[in-house]
Write a structure and sequence with these properties.
Length: about 300
């Protein structure tokens, strides 16, 4: 495993120009191609790249569950959708492009949901969710081995979190599954500052691009099937465009040639420590529904 200590970063102005946009290959000049550990100029870990770490771990059954999520689309990824936001209507509400990105596992209160919960897909597909555990436990094992301080810090918070919301044997509450779209430059929100994030990649068919880039530090990695990266998701990151074997830029799975890039991001949501048990949260949801019955919003 090589170790890299970065010495420089791009200017704030140059970075601002890239935020929300899909970067090109001109956004990096270091491409990690083997096992590596990268530190930021202040000495904090930026990422650990572990090629092939998940190759013999992810089963066909797990792949099928993750692949099935491609039909779930969202316009809630904001800058990470890589699309320009458009103003719609007089209220100037902004919508980002619909992309295949699903949050599975547990979520803390947000938006119209005033209680902690398992996401809709998770509730409806519990056997598939549970079948993902061994893969998520393998990611946890890599995290414990390669970033032990971050793992310990995250486990401290996990121990304060009700087990109903934790993937057993891991420091994770939540997983985002993306299918074949390049994220615009963004930082992740809602996950634990003192922890670390993780992404493993599954590839099918042929495509180029989708390289994962830290534009501020001009570092990239071309995640192959079964590769795992442990990373500080509070640093700016995004992907290059994905071009499938048909020659098209893809923002979704290619039905014609089967080109597919699934990225599985596992992390802990900071606010999950405040959640009660599942039964308590269901009670809270019922109480809220009763209280707001007939209230027009
Ligand atoms: O797909 C990737 O490589 C990056 C995913 C990501 O950054 C995200 O979901 O926030």
């Amino acid at each position: 495993m090589i170790s890299i200590r970065l010495r420089s970063r791009i200017s704030r102005q140059e970075l601002d120009e890239r935020v929300g946009k899909v970067v090109g290959d001109d956004a990096y000049n270091v491409l990690l191609t083997g096992p590596s550990r990268v530190f930021m100029p202040d000495g904090r870990p930026l990422c650990v790249y572990l090629p092939g770490a998940m190759r013999d771990v992810v089963t066909d059954e797990q792949y099928s569950a993750l692949h099935s999520l491609r039909v779930v689309k969202t316009a809630n990824r904001g800058a990470a959708s890589g699309s320009e936001r458009v103003a719609v209507g007089e209220q100037k509400r902004h919508y980002a492009m619909h992309v295949s990105s699903s949050v599975i596992g547990a979520l803390d209160p947000g938006g119209t949901f005033k209680f902690c919960r398992l996401t809709a897909w998770t509730g409806k597909n519990l056997p598939q969710w549970e079948a993902l555990r061994p893969a998520l436990q393998a990611v946890a094992g890599a995290m414990r081995e390669h970033v032990p301080e971050r793992y310990a810090a995250q486990m401290e918070e996990i121990e304060q979190t009700h087990p109903d919301w934790v993937v057993p044997g891991t420091p994770f509450t939540t997983v985002t599954v993306n299918n074949t779209y390049p994220t615009g430059v963004h930082t992740d929100k809602g996950d634990l500052d003192k922890g670390f994030s993780t992404i493993f990649c599954l590839r099918r068919g042929e495509y180029t691009g989708g390289r994962f880039v830290f534009p501020e530090f001009r570092v990239a990695v071309d995640l192959q099937d079964g590769d795992l990266i442990l990373m500080d998701a509070h640093q700016w990151h995004g992907n290059t465009a994905i071009v499938c074997a048909c020659g098209e830029k893809r923002t979704a799975y290619c039905d014609a040639c089967g080109a597919e890039r699934i990225s599985v991001v596992s992390y802990m949501r900071t606010a999950m420590t405040k959640c009660g048990s599942e039964a308590e949260e269901i009670g809270r949801a019922r109480e809220y529904r009763e209280r707001t019955k007939g209230v027009v919003r």
